[in-house]
Automatic annotation (TrEMBL):
The active site is at Y95 (charge relay system), E137 (charge relay system). NADP(+) binds at G275, I276, G277, I278, T279, P280. Gene3D superfamilies: Globins, Nucleotide-binding domain of ferredoxin-NADP reductase (FNR) module, Translation factors. This is Flavohemoprotein. The lineage of its organism: Bacteria, Bacillati, Bacillota, Bacilli, Bacillales. The gene is hmp. Keywords: Detoxification, FAD, Flavoprotein, Heme, Iron, Metal-binding, NAD, NADP, Oxidoreductase, Oxygen transport, Transport. Residues 152-263 form the FAD-binding FR-type domain. It catalyses: 2 nitric oxide + NADPH + 2 O2 = 2 nitrate + NADP(+) + H(+); 2 nitric oxide + NADH + 2 O2 = 2 nitrate + NAD(+) + H(+). The record marks Y29 as: Involved in heme-bound ligand stabilization and O-O bond activation.
Length: 406
């Protein structure tokens, strides 16, 4: 356990780290990749270029310091991080170099304000937090490997089918190369891909939500091709999948992971997706149809227009076939053909008024996924509606861990 003086120093200086979280994160990664370039293989380089990973680290450090005496208070953050660590293969022996580098980054950014006493306290705190993470991850590794159809590390899968779902989204049906059974998963979880791309110096690791219900002899991921726009670079991995890989090609995946999971209750469900955020929610919807066909579901999907609307026909068919499922579509920029057809329910952006007009009751479990600004808007709307926090669930593609608490 940590002594009282260490706890006092860490909690009193945590706000300072929050204030300087971005430069500390930036300096940390500069130092880390110079000390241990192999760790570059574990990080999303596109997020590095956009500065997202750096901000995420700063947030995690601040949150852990603030709650050092009660890590249970940030259980959602810890669960999310440890699930991803297990998925990408973080090992106990990697923690010390990360800790040393983090302390050096704090010293470099804060200068004289980072006294020896402060650095020593944060060193002890980091060791305490790291031990907690390592213990949780050890159990996750064991559970994953020993579950039916489970495996350790990465496993080879063949692309069995490649189906275009919209102008930018393609589904990949994956079957294990060894022909043996595959692990089941909870609707909402993801697969983690380790891509060895010709011409790329480092391995690229990505998380992709599973987009179909569990219990099949295949996994399905549905990937949006990320093209360059503005200052944002094109997606290295998504373009590789879309443009270079074909049926029969092989990819490496770790076993399903993630903390975004469909509940087992009979409460009505509201599934709200933005863009490619539809993928985990589609898995949930397909699962409910198979397992709880009488459960009340409101499915709301927001996208630019019909050209970007993935799984449009599938969702229409489900709504037609199941009276307990209501489907609504929001187009931010409908085409003239969309306006003529009228196959959407709202133009622009969904707000609280729209949600209240189509959702029968706030006494439901709400699940949402999509771009960060979209999810922040949904989260704010649900908060204004006084929806219980226990009934609000979301997945984030970005490393920024908790909406509204960054």
């Amino acid at each position: 356990m940590l002594d009282a003086k260490t706890i006092e120093i860490v909690q009193s200086t945590a706000p300072v780290l929050k204030e300087h979280s971005k430069p500390i994160g930036k300096r940390f990664y500069e130092l880390l990749f110079s000390k241990a370039p192999d760790l570059y293989n574990l990080f999303n380089q596109t997020n590095q270029k956009r500065g997202i990973q750096q901000e995420a680290l700063g947030y995690a450090v601040y949150a852990a310091g603030e709650h050092i005496t009660n890590l249970e208070a940030i259980k959602p953050v810890i669960k999310r991080v440890t699930e991803k660590h297990r998925a990408i293969g973080v090992k106990p022996e990697q923690y010390p170099v990360v800790g040393e580098t983090l302390l050096q980054a704090v010293k470099d950014v804060l200068g004289d304000a980072a006294t020896d006493e402060i650095i020593e306290a944060w060193g002890k705190a980091y060791g305490y937090i790291a031990d907690a993470f390592i213990d949780i991850e050890k159990n996750l590794y064991e559970e994953t490997e020993h579950q039916p159809g489970g495996w350790e590390g990465y496993r080879s899968f063949n692309i069995d089918k490649k189906i275009k779902e919209s102008d930018a989204v393609t589904s990949f049906y994956l079957k294990p190369t060894d022909g043996k059974p595959i692990a089941s998963y909870h609707a909402g979880q993801y697969l983690t891909l380790k891509a060895e791309i010709p011409g790329e110096k480092y391995t690229h690791i990505r998380h992709y939500s599973l987009s179909d219900s569990p219990g099949k002899d295949y996994y399905r991921i549905s990937v949006k091709r990320e093209d360059a726009h503005g200052d944002a670079p094109s997606g290295i991995v998504s373009n590789y999948l879309h443009r270079q890989l074909q049926v029969g090609d092989t990819l490496q995946f770790s076993a399903p992971a993630g903390d975004f999971e469909l509940d087992n209750t009979n409460l009505p469900v509201v599934l709200i997706s933005g863009g490619i955020g539809i993928t985990p929610l589609l898995s949930m919807l397909n699962t409910i149809i198979e397992k709880q066909p009488q459960r009340q579901v409101t499915f709301i999907h927001a996208t630019s227009n019909s050209q970007t609307h993935a799984f449009k026909e599938h969702l229409q068919q489900i709504a037609n076939d199941h009276q307990h499922i209501k489907s609504f579509v929001v187009y931010a920029a409908p085409t003239e053909a969309d306006r003529t057809s009228g196959h959407f329910d709202k133009e622009g952006y969904m707000g609280l008024d729209f949600l209240q007009s189509i959702v029968p009751s706030k006494e439901a479990n709400f699940y949402f996924c999509g771009p960060i600004p979209f999810m922040e808007a949904i989260n704010e709307a649900l908060s204004k509606w006084s929806v219980s926090k226990e009934h609000i669930h979301y997945e984030v593609f970005s490393p920024l861990a908790i909406l509204g608490e960054k």
